[in-house]
Amino acid sequence: MQLQPIEYATLYDRIGAVRLRRLLEDFYARVALNPDIAPLFPEDLSETIDRQEAFMTGFFGGPPLYFERYGHPRLRMRHMRFPIGQTQARAWLACMHAALEASDLEPDLQREVYAALARTAVHMINQPGA
């Protein structure tokens, strides 16, 4: 069996840096308005967006920017100081879902990104009963 070449190997390749940045800017604009999660974030989200962009670049298969700048992501450990229950995880995902739907990403790509982030959101829950 001969494998066919893959035009774009990673999610990051298919999203691209510009579209990822736009997605995150829209996402965090939604986060800032969401009463269930806005209190978990600083008022000025510019550094948060930069860090998330660095993380998602590597998470989606691009250069390991987050690791190079900040070290290992250690997502759960870095987020343990924030109460994250199902309500917060669902709110985070709802903001991402809305940002994805408003983006110019192709529907199949939107679904793939959402699925990857949904697994991560569930992993971040540290208040199981909340």
TrEMBL record:
Pfam family, one: Bac_globin
Keywords: Heme, Iron, Metal-binding, Transport
GO MF assignments: heme binding; metal ion binding; oxygen binding; oxygen carrier activity
InterPro entries from the UniProt entry: GlbO/GLB3-like, Globin-like_sf, Globin/Proto, Hemoglobin_trunc
Domain of life: Bacteria
Family indicated by similarity: Belongs to the truncated hemoglobin family. Group II subfamily.
Protein name as it appears in the record: Hemoglobin
Lineage of source species: Bacteria, Thermotogati, Deinococcota, Deinococci, Deinococcales
